[in-house]
Design brief:
The structure is a homodimer. Chain A is of the alpha/beta class. Chain A folds into 2 domains: 147 residues, Rossmann fold (3-Layer(aba) Sandwich), CATH 3.40.50; 133 residues, Glucose-6-phosphate isomerase like protein, domain 1 (Rossmann fold, 3-Layer(aba) Sandwich). Chain A is 49% helix and 14% strand. Chain A has 11 helices and 9 strands. In chain A, the strands form 2 sheets. In chain A, strands 2-1-3-4-5 form a 5-stranded parallel beta sheet, sandwiched between helices. Chain A has a 4-stranded parallel beta sheet with strand order 7-6-8-9, with helices on both faces. The longest helix of chain A has 24 residues. The mean pLDDT of chain A is 97. Chains A, B: Its EC number is 3.5.-.-. Chains A, B: Homooctamer. Chains A, B: This is Fructosamine deglycase. Chains A, B: It is an enzyme of class 3 (hydrolase).
Chain lengths: 324, 324
């Protein structure tokens, strides 16, 4: 990892370490919120300090009572210009929270409002370890290791360098399947996604940003455990599902959803995270790396749909085109 | 309120008061989870003690590290038989948490697993103050008043008796509109719902339990703040939305979503919670009562769809009909 990123992360981690942390808030919008939510999941699994995820505008308006001195607020915006997230950083900082902004642009309004900045590279050829995944994982597990030192976190941080290779090998491994999915599902007007644990947020991101935003395909990210408490009644032979079969403690929930969906729908695509390549990753660390790799793999499923629908992922009808 | 309920709630509240509360967990499935989430919202607004909502099976499998002595776990299942929630109660109690089960059946497995029981009446003619809404609000604001005594909570608790009347008057007030909605939207295969704050959970419940489960209409509950970060690209002139315009601090988020949706879709149904009748409710308490009344009003929109689609809300194809 580049020295610049190492130093930024160290500053943020040290600030957290120097704080009597009462709570963490993860605050962003859309895909950035979903990405941050993976951190909320890991923190909730690993430490007893409470954490919560908010979409930026809800955070500012509902004004959670727990926010104040002792809060650590982690915010993220790819461009660093998302107005709601910029406002949330200002709001949190004024309330006395430690604010950490994650963005690809250190000169952005978000980075100007936050006390600490964690920059990631984007499309410059160093996208993995110095990119959003490597940098975010370094921050989250750096914080965990600072609060409750554990050799497991040390190993995880040292194995992050394998991510670059894992993204490549796993994209190759799933390329044919993803593009076949694109061909088979190209006429679908609606595709449900299902997931649990950290993968629920991958499903949310796929639904909101890839299917609905980039492909104009209707969707809903259903939690594997919630599927049976309402949504499953919408299942029918011609209703399509993309289900993430996670690597981690909630995998049994996904298995149950898959078994049911496959029984009553002819269109169930399963993305099994345990079948991916984990070269260089220790067995006990797979559940941490799975969600990171899943993101790259799922993106390819969207590429497959884009290819076969002739609808490039870059096309928008409203976003960036008007005031809203 | 009947003495039985008063006593059960007092026992639960006293147990919370006697605990050095580290965190609250709200644990249930589907519509019960959404109902509990209103409590999470109010607690997060009013006190700094952290709280979090989990679907029951995720709670047990992901095993949040914060769960233990000092945790208060509030669980809910209408019948008290939901296996995942029963398992969650057992799990939480074994970890040393104070467990409070809410159900219509005190003899149910859930009530047997939990330490404290809060029973509500169902379809016996005393459904409001002694029903799920009255009883749950009494518990939540009883807890708030015990932890941080406030005359506002006292007033709120004393005004809960008006709920029965408010359910009736507001159902009458919105009857025509709801059944017109049913007529106009009866051929729709997909209806999105949108909401924020405590109303997001109403949207979730309407999507999961009423549209998808009871009416087999595809849906997704979109947070008003998240709409602009992906989902709004799926908006088109013929894409239907039911948007809850809430009473409370996040109303500006709903207004923004409505303005956009109305510009690009010809099918936007707005349920404005401020236009409802709040007879007997103090001005500063409206934001607490709004979500309670919204539930009864929204149910009527589903009744309207049921009437005009000829698909009764009681029909299921999988639920209760097979093992899954």
């Amino acid at each position: 990892m580049k020295t610049e990123h190492v130093n930024q992360i160290a500053s943020a981690v040290n600030a957290v370490k120097a704080t009597d942390v009462k709570n963490f808030y993860f605050v962003a919008c859309g895909g950035s919120m979903a990405a941050l939510a993976t951190g909320d999941y890991f923190l909730s699994r690993e430490i007893s300090v409470p954490s919560k995820v908010y979409t930026s505008n809800e955070f500012v308006h509902m004004n959670p009572r727990g926010l104040g001195k002792g809060s650590v607020v982690i915010l993220r915006s790819h461009s660093g210009t998302t107005p709601e997230t910029v406002a949330a950083a200002k709001f949190a900082r004024e309330k006395g929270a430690v604010t950490i902004a994650i963005s690809m642009d250190v000169e952005s309004p978000l980075c100007k409002e936050a006390e600490y900045i964690v920059h990631y590279n984007y499309k410059d050829g160093s996208d993995v370890i110095d990119g959003e995944t490597g940098v975010y994982y370094s921050l989250i597990f750096g914080i965990l290791n600072a609060l409750t030192p554990n050799e497991k976190y040390e190993r995880l941080l040292s194995q992050l360098k394998n991510l670059e290779n894992l993204f490549e090998t796993n994209k190759k491994l799933t390329y044919d399947r993803a593009f076949k999915f694109g061909s088979e599902y190209k006429r679908e007007k609606l595709i449900y996604t299902i997931g649990s644990g950290a993968y629920y947020h991958q499903a949310y991101s796929f639904t909101s940003c890839l299917l609905m935003e980039m492909l104009w395909i209707h969707s809903n990210a259903i939690h594997s455990g919630e599927y049976f408490h309402g949504p499953f009644e919408a299942t029918d032979f011609d209703v399509p599902f993309l289900i993430i079969k996670g690597e981690g403690p909630t995998r049994p929930l996904d298995e149950r959803a898959i078994t049911f969906a496959q029984k009553f729908s002819d269109k169930v695509e399963v993305v099994d995270i345990t079948e991916l390549d984990y070269a260089g990753i220790d067995e006990d660390l797979k559940e941490y790396f799975g969600p990171a790799i899943a993101g790259a793999v799922l993106r390819q499923y969207a590429d497959g749909l884009a290819e076969h629908t002739g609808h490039p992922l870059s096309v928008r009808r409203y976003m960036w085109k008007m005031e809203y």
